[in-house]
Amino acid sequence: MNCEVCQLKELDVEHFEIREVLRCILHTIFFHRALGLVRPKDIDFELLEITYVQCGDAKLEKKVDEKIDQFIDRICLSFFEVKNKQATWFTHKVEHLYWEQWYINLNVAQHPKPYSGKSHHSKLVVDPGESASGRRATLESSLHEVLFQIIKFVNEKKDHFPPIPNMEGVSFPYEITNPSSSDSAFRMDMFKRML
Fold first, then answer.
1. Helix axes 18-32, 132-156, angle to 10 degrees
2. Which of 49, 60, 104, 179 has the fewest CB atoms within 10 Å, i.e. the most exposed one?
3. Among positive and negative, which fits the CA dihedral 113, 45, 19, 185?
4. Helical spans, DSSP H, in 40-176
5. How far is CA 4 from the centre of its chain?
6. pLDDT value at position 9?
7. What is the DSSP secondary structure assignment for residue 151, as one 8-state letter?
8. Which among 3, 2, 8, 4 has a CA at the least distance from the CA of 151?
């Protein structure tokens, strides 16, 4: 089985925007990969003029929030099929066959800390870049692009789905990880992007 990979466009965010941006992206993916009956719940993005939909599943929302709290600079949402491997004497092995992975990359702005020394030579350098409203408009536009990228991917990539499992919940089995730059899959993906 092939694993389809979607590398979402990198977004430039401020630290205080991370939680809402990741919630918006992750819940949009979950909604479009939901199984069975969902109770759609419209969510207004508090910082931007964007509304997205959640599946209305409290367990899923809690798991997403827990993983967001562990966020460093990238998140990978992986859907998989569970296969039982042949058992040995005292073990029962379960294998995860990944069929779809979503890489979400955020470039979090690092603001220099003001110098607190007493020297008369120290000055706080302010970046004369975009104003807050201009940066917010750029983020909003970029986030719209990512949401459309998700919709385009889910509409085009349907042939790789495994059989629908007998399970409770609104989603295929999944895991949300924070891959480090030392992970081989991430390194290979970055190498492909450089070519």
1. 20
2. 49
3. negative
4. 58-69, 132-156
5. 15
6. 95
7. H
8. 8
HSE (side-chain half, CA atoms, 13 Å) at 172: 22
Q: Give 5-72 as a DSSP string.
A: EEEPPPEEE-GGGHHHHHHHHHHHHHHHTB-S----EEEE-SSSS-EEEE---HHHHHHHHHHHHT-S
Distance separating alpha carbons of residues 162 and 153, to the nearest angstrom:
17
CA–CA dist 50, 100 (Å, integer): 26
Q: Do the beta carbons of residue 64 and residue 77 sit within 8 Å? A: no
Amino acid, single-letter form, for residue 187: R
The pTM for the full model equals 0.75
At 125-180, the pLDDT tens digits run 444 455 778 888 999 999 999 999 999 999 998 778 777 766 666 778 889 998 86
Tokens at 12, concatenated: 């430039």
161 CB-near residues (< 8 Å, 6+ apart): 99
